[in-house]
UniProtKB/TrEMBL annotation:
GO terms for biological process: isoleucine biosynthetic process; L-serine catabolic process; L-threonine catabolic process; lipid metabolic process. PANTHER family: SERINE DEHYDRATASE-LIKE (PTHR48078:SF16), THREONINE DEHYDRATASE, MITOCHONDRIAL-RELATED (PTHR48078). It is an enzyme of class 4 (lyase). Residues 15-310 form the Tryptophan synthase beta chain-like PALP domain. The keyword Acyltransferase does not apply. SUPFAM superfamilies: Tryptophan synthase beta subunit-like PLP-dependent enzymes (SSF53686). It comes from the Eukaryota. This is L-serine deaminase. Coiled coil: none annotated. Belongs to the serine/threonine dehydratase family.
Length: 329
């Protein structure tokens, strides 16, 4: 392995310490202070660079010569970004319906893009097949201890910025990598008593289905517009976290998630994916207040942190198309 690569592989990390902003607009709706952890400003557009960057650095140290990743978008962009930083070629395998802007973004990061299958699970099988080649490593989008270890850095930043624990933490669940990482981070900083509101959209609710069944459940199909949440089965580790921390699993409708994207754009002038809108909908749809009224959350919360997970699969035209499809003007 050449020395420049090993030097880069040992670099501090590829993610940035993201802003924690107090949102006046969301605080008004919630009736308590709402902080936004702005993962949408990460160099690869989402929180994914934390875990995937860490994973790729560790693989480079072990002599990986080619990275392959299957992703509905954000994980692939994080893997391509990390590969470029490490000076390693990357092949990204995506479902056939992936937006052109995501494909272009990946190619812009220097990655080779292959389109296979209708959903993430099919692209994943192709990536696993490619990873059997000598020196190739498959980058799991969410289900690996190194990924969770990388995501835990987000909680260390929260601790440094806030000092005292928030009353609740809100995040979106797709495959469960962010949930597993945040859970590990909370335990690490001694904040394991902080409740996590884990949100999904109806039609991409593999975590909620698993929590209700008490075991992993595979959804027959992903019908939600929040394609970044589109794993049919959640990571086993995410389900195990339910036994260790206070995790409130909730499901919102696509319409609520997309409405939250529009309201967030108006309030904060930031455009995020419907996957991220699912987390914001906890505040905008009044779900937070309902959880308090039902006694599932404390009636008075010191503050609430919403992880604005980001996302690359959205633009102005895309938001208008989603609203039209869901009957929102």
């Amino acid at each position: 392995m050449d020395s420049s690569l090993t030097g880069c592989a040992r670099a501090e990390h590829f993610h940035t310490v993201t802003p924690l902003l107090e949102s006046w607009a969301l605080s008004q709706v919630a009736g308590t202070t709402v902080f936004l952890k702005c993962e949408n400003v990460q160099p690869a557009g989402s929180f994914k660079i934390r875990g995937i960057g860490h994973f790729c650095q560790e693989m480079a140290k072990k002599g990986c010569r080619h990275l392959v990743c299957s992703s509905g978008g954000n994980a692939g962009i994080a893997a391509a970004y990390a590969a470029r930083k490490l000076g390693i070629p990357a092949t990204i395998v995506l479902p056939e319906g992936t937006s052109l802007q995501v494909v272009r973004r990946l190619q812009g990061e220097g990655a080779e893009v292959q389109l296979t299958g209708k959903v993430w699970d099919e692209a994943s099988l192709k990536a696993q097949e490619l990873a059997t080649r000598d020196g190739w490593v498959n980058v799991p989008p969410f289900d690996h201890p190194l990924i969770w270890e990388g995501h835990a850095s987000l909680v260390r930043e929260l601790k440094a910025a806030l000092g005292t624990p928030p009353g609740a933490l809100v995040l979106a669940v797709g495959g469960g990598g962010l949930l597993a990482g945040v859970s590990a981070g909370l335990a690490e900083v001694g904040w394991q008593h902080v409740p996590i509101i884990a949100v999904e959209t109806q039609g991409a609710h593999c975590f909620n289905a698993a929590v209700k069944a008490g075991r992993l459940v595979t959804l027959p199909d992903i019908t939600s517009v929040a394609k970044s949440l589109g794993a049919k089965t959640v990571a086993a580790r995410a389900l195990a976290c339910v036994q260790e921390l206070e995790i409130i699993s909730e499901v919102v409708e696509d319409v609520q998630a997309v409405s939250a994207v529009q309201q967030f754009l108006d309030d904060e002038r930031m455009l995020v994916e419907p996957a991220c809108g699912a987390a914001l909908a906890v505040i905008y749809s009044g779900l937070l207040g309902r959880l308090q009224a039902e006694g599932r959350l404390r009636p008075s919360l010191a503050s609430v942190v919403v992880i604005v997970c980001g996302g690359n699969s959205i633009d102005g035209g895309g938001l208008q198309a989603l609203k039209a499809r869901l009957g929102q003007s």
